[in-house]
Design brief:
mainly alpha
Length: about 140
């Protein structure tokens, strides 16, 4: 993995050079789609488009949370505050849109989605932060 530090001419997006910002956003999208896919597998074995029907409110929440990261210039790869903002923004906006669209909000779904999205959206950031911290201490 090459350095996430920009050269002097690189603009930053959410605290990262553009290619790493795109990669971080793609990881978040992957986990939201994995969440929707797992839900589809558990409850509805219909067509693959069901995944998008489940995912769309959370993808909008994810995009809104990322807009906050970019606006505030918070480093997107950090667990705090970026990971928590992405997690809670994705969850809250996703659930509001899901409810407004007439989809179910069963208590078990609320809990499972809160835990899954928290574990994945904050978790990968915690792992990357720990890995970079460990690597910098070994080199330095």
């Amino acid at each position: 993995m090459s350095s996430t530090k920009p050269d002097d001419s690189s603009p930053l997006i959410a605290g990262l050079v553009p290619k790493w910002a795109v990669a971080a956003f793609a990881v978040d999208v992957f986990f939201v789609l994995l969440f929707a896919f797992a839900g589809r597998q558990s409850h509805d074995s219909g067509p693959a488009l069901v995944v998008l029907r489940i995912a769309w409110p959370f993808l909008i929440g994810l995009a809104a949370a990322w807009a906050v990261l970019i606006w505030r210039r918070w480093p997107a790869a950090r667990a705090w505050p970026a990971g928590v903002i992405v997690w809670l923004g994705t969850y809250v906006i996703g659930m509001v849109l899901r409810g407004l669209s007439g989809e179910g909000l069963a208590p078990a779904f609320l809990v499972v989605s809160l835990l899954f999205l928290g574990l994945t959206l904050v978790g990968w950031r915690g792992y990357v932060s720990a890995k970079l911290h460990y690597r910098s201490r070994r080199v330095g």
